[in-house]
Specification:
Length: 77
């Protein structure tokens, strides 16, 4: 199963469909970006070159989705 199939299966599953999906890819093609959003991706992030840059992007994704965004089912703090 490739990433597009995982995205489609996740968004088709009633239990998982609200799970945020961030597409992390090397593709900068507009057609890939549009397809991901058409298939209900919540974000499309192009991987930077190098391990250090990738680590920073992953930290930023983590901080956003787990510290900034309010998701269904989260208790009020």
């Amino acid at each position: 199963m490739d990433g597009r199939e995982v995205l489609a299966a996740t968004k088709a599953d009633p239990v998982l469909r609200r799970t945020p999906v961030v597409v992390l890819t090397s593709s900068q093609e507009e057609s890939d970006l549009l397809r991901a959003y058409d298939e209900d991706a919540n974000a499309y992030v192009v991987e930077p070159i190098g391990l250090e840059g990738l680590a920073e992007v992953v930290k930023a994704i983590d901080a956003f989705w787990f510290s900034v965004v309010r998701l269904p089912g989260q208790a009020d703090d």
